[in-house]
Amino acid sequence: MNCTDFKDxxxxxxxxxxxxxxxxxxxxxxxxxCDSCRSIFLSYKEVMNFQKIRASYSGSEKGKKMxxxxxxxxxxxxxxxxxxxAVLTIGFxxxxxxxxxxxxxxxxxxxxxxxxxxxxxxxNPDNEINLSIKNASGDVKSRTEKIFNLINDSExx
Amino acid sequence: xxxxxxxxxxxxQEIQEAEKNFIVALKKKxxxxxxxxxxxxxxxxxxxxxxxxxxxxxxxxxxEVFFRIYKSIKRFKGDSAFSTWLYRITVNVCKDILxxxxxxxETFTDFEDEDNGGVPExxxxxxIEADIxxxxxxxxxxxxxxxxxxxxxxxxxxxxxxxxxxxxxxKITEKPLGTVKSRIxxxxxxxKSLLEKYGxxx
Lengths: 157, 202
Hints:
The structure holds 2 protein chains of 2 kinds.
Chain A: H1 3-15, H2 21-33, H3 35-55, H4 61-123, H5 128-136, H6 138-156
Chain B: H1 12-27, H2 31-53, H3 59-72, H4 82-103, H5 128-147, H6 150-161, H7 166-173, H8 177-197
């Protein structure tokens, strides 16, 4: 084995556990004879060991807590957004419905008031409206009378 | 990872089943599963990050890796082992960090500021001269490792530090097996020539 074989092939295959027993013997023999190759191989192993020790890491409780806290926050985020939306939605539609209700209520009141007013005035023959109706058409007058009769009849029943 | 030292009777099927349940729990966002994730894998993720990034403080990397797992666990189909997937995410997070720092054209590693936290302290019985010699060697090691390119460092970390096989490295880096083999070959070659250059073996 020459140095190029050692450095370019045998050493890598040794690191990868790919040498058979015969090759391992050759590999060791070359290392005994060649200072330079032995030096490269040993320093390679030494650097790797150094890096293994340097890189070894132990997770901390603090780190774990930090991570779990972050997860919890993230996990609750959709609910918080949903809750926010719900509050907004209820606020928006709630106020709209309330306003609608008020408007309907007012309109209803107006209708009722107007109806009462009309009924009152209908009983007064000298009322402006009745006069105008009378003038406009006799037909309307008889129709109005019919309607009042019907209302009276139904009240009796 | 799911092998139970107290109960060596556990069959491979049982271990597989445990891992499956663990992943289901992760997908269901169970807190116990995330606690277990951190306990079991923080050391592995931290080790790779330290070796690949050449820095000691890697807590931020670990947080980011696990948070990415939380965000993307739904996409994990189980085509590869969970650990392979975790390795891949770790490597990607480290790559992002390196890219960010190289964009800012800053030196990521400042050896001057680093303490020797990762280096075992020599025992008091060792004589001072040997101590100093050892200290010089450590500085040399740091220099050599610092001179490796990011990619060489990645492949050496995965193969020679983590001891992963070529097949798994191919899955982690998403590169063909042949490419992985040649990258590792050249990374080692460059490391050997750096060791020769600095005369570390002498």
